[in-house]
Amino acid sequence: MPSRERKLATIGLVLRDDVLLHTLMQVIRTRTVDSWTLHSGLDADVVLCNPDSTLAGVALRRAGEAACVSLIHDGQTPLPGTRTLRAPIKSNDLIALLNEAPHATARSGQMDPAAADASEQDILEALHGLMSGKSPTPHAVESRAGVLLLTPADQALHASAALTEADVLPWLQADRVRVRQIDQAALERTTSQRIDNLLWMIGLLRTGRPLLRGLPPNGKFRLKRWPDFGRLAHEACHFRMAALLSRGEYTTEQVAEATGRPIGDVHAFINACALCDLLVVDCPPTTIAPSAAPSRDRRNYSSILKTIRSALGLRV
Amino acid sequence: MQPREYKLLFTGSMGAGKTTAIAAVSAIEPCSTDVLNNDLAVHAKATTTAAMDYGEVVLDSGDRLRLYGTPGQARFDFMWKILSQGALGVVILIDNSRPDPLADLREYATAFSALLERMHAVIGIGRTETHATPGIDDFHAVLQELGHVAPILSVDVRRRDDVLMLLDILFHQIEASEITQVTSLEHS
């Protein structure tokens, strides 16, 4: 029995698709989980678009990639990041589309509590699982912040334009996401960029949480290689953590003690490194090669470096 | 008590930005031994450093941090050895717009391998915004082949903050070497 009232809108459909849709909506009304009505605004749960319509771009911006569905005829390319429905519309395809549709959230900015279903995951765990799987298949990550299209194997993020700060900010506050595979065709009209900057920020800014599920709380960690701090956000304490973890394996407690930072900051750094595939977990102890350095190397540089930093205006 | 002196090196290929990086942090007008560039086939800049660049930072105690930029061309490699004696660390600058930046890194990492072995080195890759390949992973692979580990960062040495970041990371590397030496001594 239908449980909720939900809305379907259309943008720029050709007449025959529009007529067919109206007919099908009458036919399928008892066969969808929720009760669906046709709606004239973009605050709908699903916006069915003709990708070649001049209004499709407006619909995409206002309703978001999660709500937009491209209705495509042979030879047409879907709008970037959207799900697709093939024309002519078949009733079973339409029912499946409506039953799987996420709820409209753009207006309220709040996730519908009823939408917090089992397919939603914690954003860090979901991204970690996805990226460490290194799948060559494109995936969509959906949250109330929008939709991210990415290919884990290439560490690539696909978008119609480079992400701006305004695009990234909502993702830094997002908690729950849904992940689904998407068709390669959905990446047409998009360009690729590296995703590590976004993953790094998402990991680093969550200082109040424990290590990711796949990382042993008492394990020892080492860096595969240094993060590219020329591109990635950082504070001076992250240099210190990286310098330690690139030389040997340490527990999070040891890093916290050596750097004088709260354990939450260390967890966030380790999580960010794990998201960007920079971490070796529970690695065998490395043998530090005997240093060919002269005895001068053994003297304490800390006080000298403190003075140099002060002269250069670096925070000690 | 006689003021102490510490030495930092900036090395890398011609046009990588050694002179610019030294100028970004030096307290004095850097001294350059620039001459007309006869290697226009290698780099189109009008002048190049024939012997070395020099800048310095005066510390509170009256001590001095001397900043040396090596000449870029390999035919001056005898200078590299002289300058690296007693150096606190080295900043290797690579220009990603050159024909083979990975070969450049291989050359300078080999020449300054003693400092890299002590992990007293940091590597800055310039012009990555206009020349995205080779990527940072490729440079790390070269270092791994040579048996070294070092920070490799995308930088623009025209920005003082980027030069300071390179130096700060180098200093953290040096401090971490002390911590790990202490740890290994405690465990031995």
Summarize the topology.
The complex is a heterodimer of chains A (316) and B (188).
Chain A: E1 5-11, H1 15-27, E2 35-39, E3 46-49, H2 56-63, E4 68-72, E5 83-86, H3 91-100, E6 121-122, H4 123-133, E7 139-143, E8 146-151, E9 156-159, H5 165-173, E10 176-181, E11 191-194, H6 196-204, E12 221-223, H7 236-245, H8 252-259, H9 263-275, E13 279-281, H10 302-312
Parallel strand pairs in A: 1-2, 1-3, 3-4, 4-5
Antiparallel strand pairs in A: 6-10, 7-8, 7-10, 8-9, 9-11, 12-13
Helix pairs in contact in A: 6-9, 8-9
Chain B: E1 5-12, H1 18-25, E2 31-36, E3 47-58, E4 64-69, H2 77-84, E5 89-95, H3 101-111, H4 113-117, E6 121-126, H5 136-145, E7 152-154, H6 160-187
Parallel strand pairs in B: 1-4, 1-5, 5-6, 6-7
Antiparallel strand pairs in B: 2-3, 3-4
The gist of it:
Chain A is of the alpha/beta class and 316 residues long. Chain A contains ten helices and 13 strands.
Describe the protein's architecture and organization:
The complex is a heterodimer of chains A (316) and B (188). Helix content of chain A is 32%, strand content 18%. Chain A has 316 residues and is of the alpha/beta class. Among the domains of chain A are: 5-113, 3-Layer(aba) Sandwich (Rossmann fold), CATH 3.40.50.10850; 116-194, no CATH class. In chain A, the strands form 3 sheets. Chain A has a 6-stranded antiparallel β-sheet with strand order 6-10-7-8-9-11, covered by helices on one side. Chain A has a 5-stranded parallel β-sheet with strand order 2-1-3-4-5. Chain A has a two-stranded antiparallel ribbon with strand order 12-13. Chain B is built from 6 helices and 7 strands. Chain B has 188 residues and is of the alpha/beta class. Chain B has a single domain, classed as Rossmann fold (3-Layer(aba) Sandwich). The chains are: A alpha/beta (316), B alpha/beta (188). The interface between A and B is large, with 37 and 48 residues.
